[in-house]
Amino acid sequence: MKITLSDAARRYIALFEEETEATARDCLVFDDRVVFLVSAGEMATAIGPGGSEVKALEERIGRRVELVEDADTPEAFVASALAPAAVRHVTISRQNDVVAYVEVATEDRGVAIGGGGKTIETARTLARRHYDIDDIQLT
């Protein structure tokens, strides 16, 4: 699947990779934050000891930085995008639309949704861009 990045997203990816030495596969730019999709297995490198890499990047760009780790399957990807919520199970339904139904512990529903719905909307956007998933529903 081909993803079109804005000039700002490309600049942020270059800065991210320079700062962290991890690989970013995608970047979403919002007014108050920037979300990077980090290549699978590179999350620890991207975060750095005690979060040092993320903190340094936040200082350089003047926005909050959020990281999502890439995965090999759509189910694992959706679970990763909703982290740190404890995802019990993800089922992908391919009927009229492609919908990921996510079973989340009751106490983690708020975490999966995020403040103002930011976490689930970010997960939906990334899942649409990388796996053609039309929606994510919590069960």
Characterization of the model:
This protein has 139 residues and is an alpha/beta fold. The protein has six helices and six strands. The protein has a three-stranded mixed beta sheet, with helices on both faces. The two termini are 28 Å apart. The mean pLDDT is 95.
Q: How do the helices and strands line up, and which of them pair or pack?
A:
Layout (H helix, E strand, L loop, with lengths): L6 H14 L3 E6 L3 E6 L4 H5 L4 H10 L2 E6 L4 H8 L5 E8 L3 E7 L4 H5 L4 H14 L3 E4 L1
Parallel strand pairs: 2-3, 5-6
Antiparallel strand pairs: 1-2, 4-5
Helix pairs in contact: 1-3, 4-6
Give a quick precis of the structure.
The protein has 139 residues and is α/β, with parallel strands linked by helices. It contains 6 helices and 6 strands.
Instruction: Please work out how many helical segments DSSP would assign.
Output: 6
Using the CA coordinates, give the radius of gyration: 15 Å
What is the end-to-end distance? 28 Å
Helices and strands, in N-to-C order?
HEEHHEHEEHHE
In terms of quaternary structure, the protein is single chain
Q: Detail the poorly predicted runs.
A: none
Tertiary shape: globular
Into which percentage range does the β-strand content fall? Answer: 25-35%
Number of strands: 6
Please bin the fraction of helical residues. 40-55%
Largest sheet: 3 strands, mixed
- Widest sheet: strand order? 1-2-3
Decide which structural class fits the backbone: alpha/beta
Mean pLDDT across all amino acids: 95
